[in-house]
Amino acid sequence: MMKLHKKLFLLALLALLPVGIMGNAAMAAGGKAKKLPHNHWHFKGLLGTYDKEAVQRGFQVYSEVCSNCHGVEQLSFRNLGQVGGPFYLDECPAGFPESLDCSNPNENPYVKQIAAEYKFQVTDGPDEAGDMFERPALTSDRIPGPYANDNQARSINNGALPPDLSLIISARHHGPDYVKSLLTGYKEAPETVNVAPGQYYNEYYPGDMSLLIKDEYRDEEGHILKTVDVPYGGVFAMVPPLFDGVVDYADEEIPETVDQYAADVVEFLAWAADPKLQQRKKLGMMSIIYLLILSGLLYLSYREIWSKEH
Ligand code: HEC
Questions:
Q1: Cβ(177)–Cβ(184) below 8 Å
Q2: CA of 178 to the centre of ligand 1 (A)
Q3: If you placed Cys at 240, which of 61, 62, 186, 302 could pair as Cys (CB 3.0 to 4.6 Å)?
Q4: Whose CA is nearest to atom 28 of ligand 1?
Q5: Is any atom of ligand 1 closer than 6 Å to the C-beta of 155?
Q6: Which residue has the higher pLDDT, 283 or 205?
Q7: Cα(first)–Cα(last) distance of the chain, in Å?
């Protein structure tokens, strides 16, 4: 028996070996992105919830800055006013008629105002003459993005397609830390590399900087000189979107820095990717408590029954 265990263990080890070797080889060839710094996020952990004010500020950063190039088209305006959403109201603020049900996102005055005044209008139609027309958004509309279609998006962005951000936090590995680092991780490219116009260097973008090392740092056969380090990260087509002071926050206490904007917009995008997280965690906790009580009861009845058997 013992022998079989040992053999199995050795086999498992052997199976893992090539993975280790290949992993290292891939890194040596391609360079790698810098290790992501770890942030504390409100919404992580068993009881984590979104910070409602941070999600509101994040929506402001999104709609003033990111929305110039990216859509969040999975979201409708009314989602902003749903339970757990950044503009959800239990009851109407003072001054609104009592007949109004502000917990209904379609009657929520903030959501209505955001939709009506949004920077992009909704294309609707055709009208009686057969033409499409633009109109202000309603709470039931999806949040309109900046482009009519992907081809238009590419032609405006030098051929690169800015992805829709609705699900980006789930779509990227370590989404919240990655997106925050990307937004704060722009740097002057090291002098050993060539960066084409319209491309920007970022230490956290998963690219391959070994391809961009200048000829003067290579030998005659094109191999990179031993003395030259391949820089972390990669280049991509997003111009650094944030700088200090670019968004004006109503709350004077909150710093208007790239770091703060990045954290807030990640909070918003995390909510957008998983708006039901809070309800799910609550349900999870309630199920755990229920199961604990049930196990306790079962244990007691088990003791009761067996005590009578003796
Ligand atoms: C001026 C246009 C522009 C603005 C403003 C902008 N982006 Fe981008 N973004 C792009 C483009 C273009 C790409 C695609 C780049 C590429 O694929 O080379 C991109 C890509 C991204 C990506 C994907 C990176 C990856 O891993 O593939 C994320 C995340 C992102 N942007 C987030 C944001 C956020 C958040 C904001 C607002 C703070 C923002 N962007 C503002 C143009 C923009």
A1: no
A2: 12
A3: 186
A4: 179
A5: no
A6: 205
A7: 40
Residue closest to 145 by CA, chosen among 66, 80, 85: 66
Tens of pLDDT along 271-306? 999 999 888 888 888 999 999 999 999 999 999 888
Beta-carbon contacts of 60 under 8 Å, excluding residues fewer than 6 positions away, are 247, 249, 264
Encoding tokens for residue 37? 């710094």
Task: Convert the pLDDT of each residue in 222-278 to its tens digit.
Answer: 999 999 999 999 999 999 999 999 999 999 999 999 999 999 999 999 999 999 988
Under a CB-based contact definition with an 8 Å cutoff, are residues 62 and 143 in contact? no
Residue nearest to atom 15 of ligand 1 (CA): 237
For 263, the token pair is 């954290």
Is the beta carbon of 246 within 6 A of some atom in ligand 1? no
Cis ω on the peptide bond leading into residue 240 (within 30° of 0)?
no
Alpha carbons 163 and 72: distance in angstroms, whole number: 9
The mean pLDDT value for 10-20 works out to: 51
The token pair at 214 is 């200048």
Q: Which helix (H) or strand (E) holds 294?
A: helix 277-309
The secondary structure of 193-207 as a DSSP string is B---TT-EEETTS--
Give CA–CA dist 272/170, Å, rounded: 10
The model's pTM = 0.86
Residue 52, judged by CB atoms within 10 A of its CB (0-12, 13-18, 19+), counts as middle
Read off the amino acid at residue 15. A
Ligand 1 lined by 258 (C-beta under 6 Å): no
* Dist. CA 67 → ligand 1 center (Å): 10
